[in-house]
Amino acid sequence: HQQIDQSLSGKAVQLKPNYAKVQLHTTHAMIADEKGLIHGGFAFSAADYAAMCAVNDPNVVLAKAQSTFTAPVKLGQTIVFEANVLSNNGKKQTVDVHGYVGDTVVFKGLFTTAVLKKHIFEL
Questions:
Q1: Phi-psi bin for 18: left (phi > 0), alpha (psi -120 to 50), beta?
Q2: pLDDT for the residue numbered 1
Q3: How far apart are CA 49 and CA 12, in angstroms?
Q4: Looking at residue 4, what DSSP letter applies?
């Protein structure tokens, strides 16, 4: 996911084997209403990106996701996502992702990924 738009999906700030940290700085382009509520799709995108970074393979794709939004995010806040690979069965990997604004958990997700032998468009 090297060409992802980091202004919309976050920036990887830490990578280790089976771990990634992604920061999403919220902007006016992400608001859903006049009170500055950030649309959850941007948080989901950054969480997905964090999961892909934790797997860290050029041919990883998302197969399934379960997510919970636990608190609202408002304009100007930064969400920090931490992703940890829980299981690795070769092609299939399960990644736990939590998003935080400060000490508050705003997102929890479990992502199932597939690592393909070739790019998905080359299969």
A1: left
A2: 77
A3: 8
A4: -
Do residues 107 and 43 lie in contact, with contact meaning Cβ atoms separated by under 8 Å?
A: yes
How many angstroms separate the CA atoms of 30 and 74, rounded? Answer: 9
Higher pLDDT, 1 or 78: 78
pLDDT attached to residue 123? 78
Lowest mean pLDDT among 53-57, 60-64, 110-114, 119-123: 119-123
| Contacts for 28 with CB less than 8 Å, ≥ 6 apart | 75
Strands of 19-25's sheet in order across: 11-16, 19-25, 78-89, 92-101, 104-115, 60-69
